[in-house]
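Quick note —
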Amino acid sequence: MATSIKIDEDLKHRIQQLANARQRSAHWIMREALSQYVAREEARESFKQEALASWKAYQETGQHLTGAETRDWLRNWGTEDESELPACHD
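Predicted structure written out below.
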């Protein structure tokens, strides 16, 4: 699938300057930028969907952990005192 985009002269110049500095082609710089942007936005959308699903589950069940319970659990992450995730409750 061939795709083209129109960019202004200033951005074109900036991309070429960066490509020269990195000893890469302008094409490589643009592909890398697009790849990183898409990966970041996909992760953001995934986080958003997970948050919406969690909110819906809470609205349906009322099950939750308090902020204090979560902080206490996280405080011991990666230590010898690490414990299982506390059970959610009403």
